[in-house]
Amino acid sequence: MKLPWVLIAAILGSSMSFIDGTAVNVSLPVLQHELHAETGQTQWVIEGYALFLSSLILLGGSLGDLYGRRRIFTIGVVLFAAASIACALAGSIDALIAARCVQGIGGALLTPGSLALISASYSGEQRGRAIGLWSGFSALTSAGGPIIGGWLTQEFSWRYVFVINVPLAILVLVVLQFGVPESRDDSADRRIDVVGATLATAGLGLLVYGLIAMNAGRITLVALGTTLAGIAVLCAFVLFERRTPDPMVRCDLFASRDFSAANIYTFFLYAAIGGSLYFVPFVLINVHHYTPTEAGAALLPFVFIMVAASRWSGGLVARIGARKPLILGAILAGFGFLAFALPGNDGSYWTTFFPAATILGCGGALFVAPLTTTVMNSVPVEHSGVASGINNAVARTAGLIGVAVLGVVVTTSASYAGGFRSAMIASALLAFAACVVAVKGFARFEPGPVSGA
């Protein structure tokens, strides 16, 4: 029976992307010192990967449906592994950034492909169980990423954070070759939205480049012009997607009030989470003198609470609806960010960062599962896959922009500690803005599924 091998390949393949998504952040302070990188260059180590992943992830899913899910997933794994080797061997910060961009392209091919393989190979109750196992292992690898990254960086080198992808990739390729059948969507249209993908990548790239160029208060005409050009290209992307017969992003889904509100809510909260947590390892290592391993473990309460409470919070939607958990989750997240802004240079972890990570984790536990449920229930069933993909892309794009925007906040302050506090306050404001969206944007429905669009 080939089905278990499909699940193994999907879990191991996606784990490379999930581990890198959390492990690399912890190694940034060390690699910045070793490669003599500026703050903006260090940001691009994360942003280069996130840029191509967020802008091409919908295209990656479409390519799998058209040309074969196993084939595109295999190409993504090979590309991700090759780029990981290039990251590990990088002799300069520019080489590392370039390799991370290629890694993002690989991630955009393998991330949607992992779930697509599962959906194509399982049905009914088996599919639900398989996706549940995939989600559980994804959460575990995301949680273990910072500890693995911190330990490898401290005991060996930051380069080993990328090396660990290679044996995983080899194992995945073997399983794909001998245990996973090919599948595709025979009804898929033969046209791929290349123009839309190009506009999205160019627009986000210009916007992020302009924002990072404003670091340390350097608001030059070039930086401002690049930022405005990025916004203009993104507007052109929206106009093109509304008119093309085969869009990468189905704009008609936004006619649903709940779907629109859910994605605005997602953008605010994930910009706050992705942007602020990028800077946590820096302040822990450079200001509070944590070791990389300790810095990697500092956010574990945040992850573990979300994982442990996800099943419970998912059931809240059926009992009380999604609106109340989303409101309370955003409020708790806002207070969690404010708690991160409080610690001074003294005090143990248990009285400084542990309470902040715990409060933020409780907030995440309340909004993550209900938000996903709202997205899936806010559109007709036949469009649920597209809706999920759009929401995933919005979350990743939010993190991409959040790092760039909060980077300006951090670098314009007199000290890094002061900039970190300002960034956390800004993140809290974004969380409270998400709360307003939940109060005003979501329909006041009774407990039960959200009505379709």
Describe the structure.
This protein has three domains: 1-182, MFS general substrate transporter like domains (Growth Hormone, Chain: A), CATH 1.20.1250.20; 194-247, no CATH class; 252-453, MFS general substrate transporter like domains (Growth Hormone, Chain: A, Up-down Bundle). 79% of the residues lie in helices and 0% in strands. It contains 16 helices and no strands. It has helices at residues 3-34, 39-67, 69-89, 93-121, 124-155, 160-163, 165-179, 194-213, 221-243, 257-287, 292-297, 300-320, 323-340, 353-377, 384-411, 416-441. Helix 3 (69-89) runs antiparallel to helix 7 (165-179) and helix 10 (257-287) runs parallel beside helix 15 (384-411). The longest helix is centred in the N-terminal third of the chain and has 32 residues, at 3-34. The two termini are 39 Å apart.
Low-confidence stretches: 445-453
Strand content: under 5%
Mean pLDDT: 84
CATH superfamily of the largest domain: MFS general substrate transporter like domains
The succession of helices and strands, N to C, reads HHHHHHHHHHHHHHHH
Number of helices: 16
Question: What is the count of structural domains?
Answer: 3
Write the CATH fold name of the largest domain.
Answer: Growth Hormone, Chain: A
The general outline is globular
Structural class: mainly alpha
Q: What's the main sheet like? A: none
CATH architecture term of the largest domain: Up-down Bundle
**CA distance, first residue to last residue:** 39 Å
Q: What's the CATH class of the largest domain, please?
A: Mainly Alpha
